[in-house]
Amino acid sequence: MNKAKLEYIWLDGYQPTPNMRSKTKIETDFSGKLEDCPIWSFDGSSTQQAEGGSSDCLLKPVSIYPDPARENGYLVMCEVLSPDGTPHPTNSRATIDSDADGDFWFGFEQEYFIMDTHTDLPLGFPPGGYPGPQGLYYCSVGGKNTHGRELVERHADFCLQAGLNFEGINQEVACGQWEFQIFAKGAKNAGDQVWVARYMLDRLTEEYGWYIEYHPKPIKGDWNGSGMHANFSNTLLRTCGSREIYEKVCEAFRPVREEHIAVYGADNDQRLTGKHETASIHDFSYGVSDRGASIRIPILTVERGWKGWLEDRRPASNADPYRVAARIIKTVEGANIQVTA
Question: Which parts of the sequence belong to the GS catalytic domain (predicted)?
Answer without folding.
Answer: 87-341
